[in-house]
Amino acid sequence: MSFDRDHVLRAAADLLARRATATMGEVARAAGVSRATLNRHFAGRDALVRALEDLGIAECEAALDAARLEEGAAADAVRRLVREAESCAGLLAFLYSENQLFEGEQQNAGWFRIDERLTNLFRRGQESGEFRIDLSATWLTEALYGLLAAGSWAVAEGRVARNDFTHMIVELLLGGAMRRDGS
């Protein structure tokens, strides 16, 4: 039987997005492989998390591409982005909580690329007069990450309907970010 790495990573992402403390044995069961097989391909939790990081970065960059961030009004680009990111929000929520991914010199360059694209989007919205200038573009980027994670967790826990994901995040973020007359 061949090892389907993509299937295993997606099963691990699904489980860990719901239960971040799941053991390697639980991940193996969720993926339908033995723990020994899982360990042959991922030498421990750190290796699995790093592989999930690569998957998460790839999916996030695909969402950024699909959202066409450079087209139209910045607020419309944010709306498209949240809609496109919904499918990978659970994985991003899990990765967002994995502090070791964002510490030290070994941080994956993919996070810098994503941060730069998002920050540029918010900066473009500020320069066009759509977004407030008293909130930095970096802060708006961090707020978006936090809202995507919170929205994903709320949907996964059944506290919020999946159909409300995009609306909730966009309305809260843009409601606070949009420039009002005189500000």
Core attributes:
9 helices, elongated, 183 residues, 67% helix, mainly alpha, single chain
Provide a concise account of the structure shown.
This protein is mostly helical and 183 residues long. It is built from nine helices and no strands.
What fraction strand? under 5%
Q: What low-confidence regions span 5 or more consecutive residues with pLDDT below 50?
A: none
Percent of residues in helices comes to: 55-70%
Q: Mean pLDDT score, rounded?
A: 89
Largest sheet: none
* SSE order, one letter for each helix or strand: HHHHHHHHH
DSSP strand count: 0
Shape: elongated
If you compute it from the alpha carbons, what radius of gyration comes out, rounded to the nearest whole angstrom? Answer: 18 Å
DSSP summary: helix tally:
9
Task: Please identify the structural class as seen in this structure.
Answer: mainly alpha
Distance between the termini: 62 Å
Write a structural description.
The chain is mainly alpha-helical and 183 residues long. The protein is built from nine helices and no strands. Helix 1 crosses helix 2 and helix 1 crosses helix 4. It is elongated and about 60 Å long.
